[in-house]
Amino acid sequence: MLKVKTPKTGRARRELEKRAPKLVETEKKTLILHGTKTSHVLNAVLTEIYHLKKENSLRYTRKNDSIRPFEAGGETSLEFFSQKTDCGLFVVGTDTLNAENCAKDVNVICTFGSHSKKRPDNLVIGRFYDHHIYDLVEVGVENFKSLQSFSYDKKMAPKMGSKPLIAFVGEGFESVEELKHLKEVLLELLRGEVVENLNLAGLDRIYVCTAVSSNRVFLSHCALRLKKSGTVIPRMELVEVGPSMDLVVRRHRLPNEGLRKEAMKTASEHTKKKVKNVKGDPILGKTGKIYIPDQKLGEMALPNKARGVKRERREAKKNKDSNGQVPKKQKQGGLSTPST
């Protein structure tokens, strides 16, 4: 277990407050590590990931013999690095081709050493929760192509720090458990900062993840070209700028149900209050019910001056005139006018 130290200075307290959980979390930093032995391909892959997330990533180039994901006791060093660097994601690359140490017991789960021959160019991606391992996904890298292997107009190169689009193509991301888990991890790794509004002119890149089979995903990085379409919305074209690779899912470990519920808790300030008698319909939209009390019209008091009273009086006066009754003489009074 890691030793927990209480802050003794104001600077240390402020630093801990920055790392404390927030209602709206900022973009998670990515920790990039090397395993016991890494090949030339894995070094290139880790370098490309670091350049794609340069603003929010931290890389250690030294070899780490004590980091062993999927093995009891081999995750302490990862948790130490998470607490030290305040990173929420990690990427570990391992590759060892030692045929003499190949184990025959399939129940032994070990990323390093005995099982390494079966898993060349191994990449482990995972997430932290409260500086502890939350979940793990182990993939193998095949058919890797770096940025330098693509030729295109350099003016179209995506800008550093721009918000990317992510497209997942294939039914496997909805039906296969391994690919569903890989989709969650790739979203956390590639999406960048979560925003509510986005300017269309700032979209210049997209990650396309295609489910080729039940355990293989083709990942490519493309630039977006905005062209005229005759309407307000421009037409977009994809130009592959790299890197691209095939990710073969080997092992994955989901979080237990108790840890998942604790990590998915929503703050009380962000919970929406339930509105009575209001429902949402996909066709009608927002609908509601209004309750009106019974209207007792018989007991309602009419106003003193009704609109129909004057008309009735005029009609009665006309009836009297038609019957030959002489109307009453008006009173004569006031000043008399002189005759001319």
From TrEMBL:
Primary localisation category: nucleus
Protein location: Nucleus, Nucleolus
GO biological process, one term: maturation of LSU-rRNA from tricistronic rRNA transcript (SSU-rRNA, 5.8S rRNA, LSU-rRNA)
Brix domain sequence ranges: 28-258
Pfam family name, one: Brix
A Gene Ontology molecular function term of the record: rRNA binding
Swiss-Prot/TrEMBL keywords: Nucleus
Region (Disordered): 295-340
GO cellular component: nucleolus
Biased composition annotated in UniProt, kind: Basic and acidic residues: 312-321
Family: Belongs to the RPF2 family.
Record-given protein name: Ribosome production factor 2 homolog
Lineage: Eukaryota, Viridiplantae, Streptophyta, Embryophyta, Tracheophyta
